[in-house]
Design brief:
single chain, 251 residues, alpha/beta, eight-stranded parallel β-barrel, 9 helices, 9 strands, 17% strand
């Protein structure tokens, strides 16, 4: 697994897998990211009504599957047969929603897995605790990175397993400004995960002086990818990892 930052370009992390070319947050997208030479994948995880760790971005399954309803109100038995691929393309018909344990079983330890904790609608649930427990059970502490827009999720994870790296996601623009500065420090993160357009060289320099990484989301434009490299960011989270790798290797 690639752990060290490249000397020539940032690590390339596939956003919800290679989601430009395969349905987001599916094993098909994660496998494709690996085939394209991504250094890791980013995925989202939520709790179902019966406390299963569901890899899914939205609060509901409506947008990406042939089902209806909120993840937090559905049982795993109601979701495991949903088609999460047809809306992306006929070639992916029947592609299921995976569980986090499925992703860890197939791809754990092979590259970095950035798990975003998505419980904005249920902030008092046990998502952080359950994800940490699964990471420990599968012995993936060194190859999983936890991230969240909720600093409280990161504090919970730190209390349970401080050895697991944590990234603080921040909103774009003015909304995220305090969290890129003084307010974010209270959450004891290892990496700042800002929107790429908010990243300037002085932010990267300040974070590096504090011993923190800067891992930017979500950047696919060639000029922006090259600008992030010039600014010295540590990781770029992108939808087309193959494109990013070709660009960096050709530069």
């Amino acid at each position: 697994m690639t752990e060290q930052i490249s000397r020539t370009h940032p690590l390339i992390i596939a956003h919800r897998g290679a989601s430009a070319l395969a349905p987001e947050n599916t094993l098909a997208a994660f496998r494709l990211a690996k085939e394209q030479g991504a250094d890791g994948i980013e995925l989202d995880v939520r709790l179902s009504a019966d406390m299963r760790l569901i890899v899914h971005h939205d609060q509901s399954v409506n947008r990406t599957t042939n089902g209806q309803g909120k993840v937090s109100e559905l049982l795993w038995d109601q979701m495991k047969h949903l088609d999460a691929g047809s809306k992306f393309g006929d070639a992916f018909a029947g592609e299921p929603i995976p569980l986090l344990e499925d992703v860890f079983e197939e791809l754990g330890g092979q590259f970095l897995i950035n798990v975003e904790l998505k419980n904005n609608s249920t902030p008092r649930d046990n998502l952080s605790e359950m994800v940490v427990k699964l990471i420990q059970k599968t012995n993936l502490q060194d190859s999983v990175f936890l991230s969240s827009f909720s600093g409280n999720n990161l504090l919970k994870a730190e209390a349970l397993a401080p050895e697991i790296r944590r990234g603080l996601l921040v909103l774009p623009g003015l909304a995220g400004s305090p969290y890129r500065g003084f307010l974010g420090k209270r959450f004891h993160y290892d990496a700042l995960h800002p929107f790429f357009a908010d990243v300037k060289p002085n932010l990267v320099e300040r974070m590096h002086l504090e011993g923190k990484q800067v891992n930017v989301w979500t950047v696919d434009n060639h000029k922006d990818l090259m600008r992030m490299r010039a600014h010295g960011v540590d990781m770029v989270i992108c939808n087309d990892p193959g494109n990013a790798r070709r660009l960096y290797e050709a530069a």
